[in-house]
């Protein structure tokens, strides 16, 4: 699997362009802004899906342009889907941001799989930062030494977690999500957050105060 990070938008959101190494179509995760730059990275591979890890304004600003330009399927968890089409729902209105997305084409649920070429991303519903927050897990391929990778949105960061003081946030739900969905992953799992540097599950078990202690 090939994952390229683009840091986009005023809040420096990590947008991920994910594809196989065999020329298969790409998946774009959290297209914060700058659709031309994202499309340039996608290139000739084509775009199969645009996936939002949650419905906040700083993760979806280029979604509409990408869908219009490519016909890609827009996906978001069912719990966040109602809010992505208006600035109050995305949380942008209170900060003066007007970014919205078109209605989702596919509503995601825990355990769903998103396919593009040889890439398979498994949906982990991780509510807390928003009701419909998700992580996308690319399991280690059988027989390969590469570690698993998870695209975490704002569920977890290196040394911290996403805020829960916005509308729809729930600190207890986020703690459960981390304890039940993230902390049990293999220690070498690479975590690609929505902001900031990558980390691993093992590192966060040791250093992140929001992870459960053995």
Alpha carbon gap, first and last residue = 32 Å
Helix content: 10-25%
Number of domains: 1
Radius of gyration: 16 Å
CATH topology: Metallo-beta-lactamase, Chain A
The number of distinct helices, counting runs of at least 4 residues, comes to 5
Strand content: 25-35%
Biggest sheet descriptor: 6 strands, mixed
The CATH superfamily name is Ribonuclease Z/Hydroxyacylglutathione hydrolase-like
The pLDDT mean sits at 95
- Residue stretches low in confidence (pLDDT < 50, at least 5 long) are none
**SSE order:** EEEHEHEHEEEEEEEHEEH
Structure description:
- The protein has 214 residues and is an alpha/beta fold.
- It has one domain: Ribonuclease Z/Hydroxyacylglutathione hydrolase-like (Metallo-beta-lactamase, Chain A, 4-Layer Sandwich), CATH 3.60.15.
- It is built from 5 helices and 14 strands.
- It has helices at 35-42, 63-70, 87-90, 171-182, 201-207, and strands spanning 2-8, 13-19, 26-29, 47-51, 73-77, 106-108, 113-116, 119-125, 134-138, 149-153, 156-157, 160-161, 190-193, 199-200.
- The chain has a 6-stranded mixed beta sheet with strand order 1-2-3-4-5-6, with helices on one face.
- β11 and β12 (160-161) form a beta hairpin.
- The longest helix has 12 residues, at 171-182.
Write out key terms for the chains shown.
single chain; alpha/beta; six-stranded mixed beta sheet; 214 residues; 5 helices; Metallo-beta-lactamase, Chain A
């Amino acid at each position: 699997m090939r994952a390229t990070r683009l840091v986009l938008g005023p809040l420096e959101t990590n947008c991920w362009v994910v594809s196989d190494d065999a020329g298969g179509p790409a998946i774009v995760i959290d297209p914060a802004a700058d659709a031309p730059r994202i499309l340039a990275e996608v290139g000739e591979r084509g775009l199969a899906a645009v996936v939002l890890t949650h419905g906040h304004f700083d993760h979806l600003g280029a979604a509409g342009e990408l869908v219009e330009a490519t016909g890609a399927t827009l996906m978001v968890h069912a719990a966040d889907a109602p809010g992505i089409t208006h600035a109050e729902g995305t949380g942008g209105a209170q900060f003066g941001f007007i970014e919205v997305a078109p209605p989702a084409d596919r509503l995601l649920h825990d355990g769903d799989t998103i396919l593009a070429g040889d890439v398979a991303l498994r949906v982990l519903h991780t509510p807390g930062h928003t009701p419909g927050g998700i992580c996308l897990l690319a399991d280690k391929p059988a027989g390969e030494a590469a570690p698993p990778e998870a695209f975490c949105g704002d569920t977890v960061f290196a040394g911290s977690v996403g805020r829960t003081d916005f509308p729809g946030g729930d600190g207890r739900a986020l703690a459960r999500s981390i304890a039940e969905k993230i902390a049990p992953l293999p220690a070498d799992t690479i975590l690609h957050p929505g902001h900031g540097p990558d980390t691993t599950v093992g590192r966060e078990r040791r250093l992140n105060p929001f992870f459960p202690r053995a």
